[in-house]
């Protein structure tokens, strides 16, 4: 008969904690393995900087895609640029609270506290969506350009937009 090996519960708990920590030292030093649920996430700063970075990155990558040597601006550029802008917004936006009709007694603020890592990560996710996932401009724009330039056919804005959106979503 095989003997059943019993482990010390304290050692098992320590091994569990070790599994949650990253093996890379730089990651362990910069990122906590615990979450602070009190940090605000869906803030005005996050939505403003996220939507701005998404649309700006999308426009710039499409604008530069027509060059002979296309320049692709990645989300890392936005990640670096939005940190000081987010902190500046946290310093200067008003902290007064207000209510929005239809949301009941909930109160909102343009500046709920210091700019935090969660907001910064979501802004980077927005920017990544705007940079066509790091590949520059959406490839369906090439289809629209070919239809207009080579076939000399008109394509409506709605049809163009639907083509770009559906092909980007299916990737």
Description:
- This protein is mainly alpha-helical.
- Helices cover 56% and strands 4% of the residues.
- The protein is built from seven helices and two strands.
- Strands 1-2 form a two-stranded antiparallel ribbon.
- Helix 3 (44-65) runs parallel beside helix 5 (117-130) and helix 4 (75-92) crosses helix 5.
- The longest helix has 22 residues, at 44-65.
Features:
single chain, mainly alpha, two-stranded antiparallel ribbon, globular
Compile the SSE list and pairings.
Elements: H1 9-20, H2 25-30, H3 44-65, H4 75-92, E1 97-99, E2 107-109, H5 117-130, H6 140-149, H7 157-169
Antiparallel strand pairs: 1-2
Give a short account of the largest sheet.
2 strands, antiparallel
DSSP strand content? under 5%
How many beta strands in the DSSP annotation? 2
Shape: globular
- Share of helix among residues? 55-70%
N-to-C SSE series? HHHHEEHHH
If helices are DSSP runs of H or I spanning 4 or more residues, what is the number of helices? Answer: 7
- Spatially, the strands of the biggest sheet line up as 1-2
Roughly what is the average pLDDT, rounded to an integer? 84
Distance between the termini: 55 Å
Radius of gyration: 24 Å
Structural class: mainly alpha
Which residues form runs of ≥5 with pLDDT under 50?
11-17
């Amino acid at each position: 008969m095989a003997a059943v090996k019993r482990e010390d519960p304290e050692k098992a708990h320590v091994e569990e904690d070790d599994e949650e920590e990253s093996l890379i030292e730089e990651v362990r030093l910069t990122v906590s393995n615990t979450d602070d649920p009190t940090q605000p996430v869906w803030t005005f700063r996050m939505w403003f900087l996220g939507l701005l970075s998404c649309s700006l990155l999308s426009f710039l990558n499409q604008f530069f895609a027509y060059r002979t040597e296309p320049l692709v601006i990645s989300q890392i550029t936005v990640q670096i640029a939005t940190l000081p802008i987010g902190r500046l917004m946290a310093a200067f936006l008003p902290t007064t609270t207000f209510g929005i009709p239809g949301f009941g007694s909930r109160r909102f603020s343009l500046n709920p506290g210091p700019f935090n890592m969660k907001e910064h990560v979501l802004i980077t996710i927005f920017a990544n969506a705007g940079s066509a996932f790091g590949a520059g401009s959406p490839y369906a724009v090439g289809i629209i350009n070919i239809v207009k330039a080579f076939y000399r056919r008109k394509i409506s804005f709605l049809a163009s937009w639907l083509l770009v959106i559906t092909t980007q979503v299916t990737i």
